[in-house]
Amino acid sequence: MKKTILLILILCSLQAIAQQKLEIEIDNPEPRVGQKVTLSINVDFLNEYLKKELGKNINVTRSSSIFGMSSEDFERAIIFEKAKTYNIGPFDFEFNGKTYTTNTIEVNVLPKLPMENGLWLRQTEFEGQHYLILEQLISNTSNKTVTENGGYSHTIGGVMPEGKAFAELNEDLTQGIQLSNYSSATNSVTPDDGELFGVGFSYAIKKYKITFDEDYKGEYVISESDFNNLPENFDIGNIKLKK
Questions:
Q1: Is residue 243 classed as helix, strand or coil in its secondary structure?
Q2: How many CB atoms lie within 10 A of CB 181?
Q3: pLDDT tens track for 78-95
């Protein structure tokens, strides 16, 4: 009986050693329905394989996109179509005689925002890291102009009104808590039932990592003084930051 148990443990250990562990990552810790999310898996082992096979006189560089960015990760854009919690992974595959397996991540997907002027702030946790996510919608105006030949030009969805600016959080909140704006994006959005050349909204999302000092204790409540460009008549809610 003891020999059988020992043999099973040895086989399990060999299997674990044979499997190479890879990490799945996403660029939005809590996306909404319809938002594009970049899912990436680190596959830098392919670089090592190519270097070995191609030889000493050939240099293997990172892949580049048309925007000049480069990466050693396998990346794909995914879109969630339903608000719920998803488990992504593990993925298993073989390459060049080795077995690779990924971790599993849990992704909480929220419903779409209502198409109206507003600002939404929420706190979330993903893979042990705390985040603040700030989203905002501002009604656009039309910039339609008539050209000399009788035609016209305009920006689809409209443009943000002059003098308007998106809100943002101060990164130094209080002693012992810091924010780092690790990702932000802006774009124009239109209602699903909107007209083809109708005016929509300017949308912004800012994602902040929350860092606590090791000796920080207590909690901090987000207030209006923690914002720049905060719109009028906005209810911040009761968001408490604590370790």
A1: coil
A2: 14
A3: 999 999 999 999 989 888
